[in-house]
Amino acid sequence: MTAPTMPTLLVLDADPPPRLGRLTGRARIVHTDEAGLAARLPEADVLLVWDFTSHAVREAWPGEGPRPRWVHTASAGVDHLMCPALAASGTVVTNARGVFDQPIAEYVAALVLAMAKDLPRTWEYQRQREWRHREALRVAGTRACVVGSGPIGRAIARTLKALGVTPALVGRTPRTGVHGPADLDRLLARADWVVAAAPLTDATRGMFDARRFGMMQPSARFINVGRGALVDEDALAEALSKRWIAGAALDVFTHEPLPPGSPLWRVPGLLVSPHMSGDTVGWRDELGAQFVELYERWAAGRPLVNVVDKSRGYVPGH
Amino acid sequence: MTAPTMPTLLVLDADPPPRLGRLTGRARIVHTDEAGLAARLPEADVLLVWDFTSHAVREAWPGEGPRPRWVHTASAGVDHLMCPALAASGTVVTNARGVFDQPIAEYVAALVLAMAKDLPRTWEYQRQREWRHREALRVAGTRACVVGSGPIGRAIARTLKALGVTPALVGRTPRTGVHGPADLDRLLARADWVVAAAPLTDATRGMFDARRFGMMQPSARFINVGRGALVDEDALAEALSKRWIAGAALDVFTHEPLPPGSPLWRVPGLLVSPHMSGDTVGWRDELGAQFVELYERWAAGRPLVNVVDKSRGYVPGH
After folding, report:
1. Which residues form the D-isomer specific 2-hydroxyacid dehydrogenase NAD-binding domain (chains A, B) (predicted)?
2. A288 and A219 in one domain?
3. Could you give the ipTM of this predicted complex?
């Protein structure tokens, strides 16, 4: 019987994650909703933030103390849980790095191609039974500026390159194949496609503002698959209505779900999707399996992977 | 003055083609519409079928006789002009091979990704201001069967492969990298994406019929960027309504433009576009330049390229 020393795994969820059955006998699993989080957190060895739309961790964080020793979020971004107390603590934070890369890259490619081929208008004409031939754009030979040089940004750049697009990656730290922030404005000004795939940090919040939309080409299209607050949404709506840029697609928003009354639903040239770019059939299963694997490392005393640099707000790396 | 021996170039068009100014002094250029075609054809040395939607050449063809010696069509398909008398004649037929390959490949990729990511439904929800998260499909790892092994089919296969799809090409003649007709049904039965990009000939007319839709996977999606008559449109509509397959996109139709009263506009799961897959900004210019280059070869007595095998109905080759 290992029960007395069995670690307590607290799971913040709405629907229970798959695959946790594999931890039977190796963890005492306690499920909680947002309301119960603060009471249970100090007794947890591990917190699994399965409901990654929740911001409850920040308010519920117990402050100084040894527990929980490890927090894992089933998301790439950690902005919803980071707070000064967590950052200052000894607690290790890990994320779901890797699970969303290829799906998000495909989603961006889908949006780029759909905009180049004017598919939204084609289907609008279909509803009206109108046959209206137009000239589409060729994607090969165009240029993209991908902001965010983590695995998601890199997968986006790789996928666009496979379609003949020339991508430029921009990250916080310039390195081989990655431009630093100093190059951003110059790259934005010549991009046909600007893709936001950066983590939300103090350095990136609101970075896509009126000034930056103003320097983009009138033919440019903007895509956000990172976090809503990277973008000044009012400025984007204005840039579209004034034709500073030719179109945009947002998969993420400052307030999610986007309220029915939001004007963003109806901005001409703006495509709205419900934060689903990374979520392909089987994703929950993959996220569950990823956590189980991390748990096994942790329980065995082996070093964790996907460890977030809490001062930066993302997993640093190549 | 070379005027007395200057060849007569008859151009069947609605809008005059660009770039023909470069033939000034080297061709006597006569423009005609469909009504005037039959009267002018016997005096033409060269016929440029610029209006590739016209079927007038078949009826107007002068029968036996030396002229025109060469017919060029500003399209990949030649089904709209081929007739027994033209096939039996000594007249050389050339097409616009090459111009449409990459644009059509991108268009197919756009449709594949849009269907995988369920974009049509996302934009339907946007109109209704509804936030409805769904799980999308991952394109990488899926299988495509591309029917038509000419440069367009090959460009489609190449582009899908760049997205991680495993493509199988099917052509009339099996060869390295290309399956023959004997493999078609087996490949259809396991494809996630079936793409029709074949020329319209006696061998391909109506090849996508109830039997073939019936053998596809319920999760399969069908895309036609070849010619409308490759498909039994009624059978496709039935296959969709009975959920034999999961979706389809048609860019070409038996009757174009698709009449407003056609039931195809409203078949659930069917995406309709107005024969524009190959037409990207600058395409008319490219078609004009391609013809001028061919004309220069022809006038200099050099062999033409893009020569159609009139018995097969397409340009043979790799």
Report:
1. 110-277
2. no
3. 0.96
- Under a CB-based contact definition with an 8 Å cutoff, are residues B183 and B205 in contact? no
Q: Nearest Cβ partner of B275 from A133, A257, A275?
A: A133
Write out the DSSP string of A202-225: TTTTT-B-HHHHHHS-TT-EEEE-
Give how many domains chain B has, as a whole number: 2
Q: Give, rounded to a whole angstrom, the gap between the first and last alpha carbons of chain B.
A: 43
Is there a contact between A45 and A68 (Cβ–Cβ < 8 Å)? yes
Task: Give residue B199's Cα distance to chain centre.
Answer: 7
Q: Residue holding tokens 């945009």?
A: A248
* pLDDT tens-digit readout, B3-59: 458 999 999 998 899 999 999 999 999 999 999 999 999 999 999 999 989 999 999
- The per-residue pLDDT for A66 is 81
Token pair of B60 as six digits: 């107007």
Q: What is the CATH number of the domain that holds B246?
A: 3.40.50.720
Amino acid at B293: E
- Distances A190 to A161, A227, A249 between C-alpha atoms, Å: 17, 23, 19
Per-residue pLDDT tens for A215-247?
999 999 999 999 999 999 999 999 999 999 999
Beta strands (DSSP E) in chain B are: 8-12, 28-32, 46-49, 70-73, 92-94, 143-147, 166-170, 193-196, 221-224, 247-250, 270-272
Do B106 and A117 meet the contact criterion of CB atoms below 8 Å apart? yes
Contact B122 A281 (CB under 8 A): no
At A186, list the tokens.
């110059």
Specify if A248 maps to a domain. Answer: yes
Residue among A52, A53, A104, A123 with most chain B CBs within 10 A, to mutate: A123
Question: For residue B31, how many other CB atoms are within 10 A of its CB?
Answer: 17
- If asked whether residues A153 and A219 sit together in one domain, one would say yes
Chain A within 8 Å of B281 (Cβ-Cβ)? yes
Of A139, A164, A58, A149, the closest CA to residue A101 belongs to A149
Distance CA A314, CA A93 (A): 10
**Residue A12 shares a structural domain with residue A143:** no
**Which of A107, A162, A276 has the CB atom closest to B163's CB atom?**
A162
Closest CA to B192 of B173, B164, B172, B171: B164
pTM of the model: 0.96
Collect all residues with Cβ–Cβ distance below 8 Å to B122 and sequence separation of at least 6.
A271, A272, A273, A274, A276
- In tens, the pLDDT along B55-75 reads 999 999 987 878 899 999 999
Domain extent, residue A86, equals 8-98+282-299
CA dihedral sign, ordered B178, B181, B186, B191: positive
Distance (Å) from the alpha carbon of B15 to chain A's nearest alpha carbon: 15
In the sheet with A46-49, reading across from the earlier edge strand, the strands are: A28-32, A8-12, A46-49, A70-73, A92-94
In a domain, residue B264? The reply is yes
Q: What's the CA gap between A122 and A126, in Å, rounded?
A: 6
Residues of B in contact with A106 (CB under 8 A): 113, 116-117, 138-140, 163
Structure tokens at B53: 């939607």
Please state the separation of Cα A290 from the chain's center in Å.
17
Task: Indicate the length of chain A as a whole number.
Answer: 318
Separation CA A199–CA A309 (nearest Å): 12
Q: Alpha-carbon distance A173 to A49, whole Å?
A: 29
Query: How many residues in total does chain B contain?
Result: 318
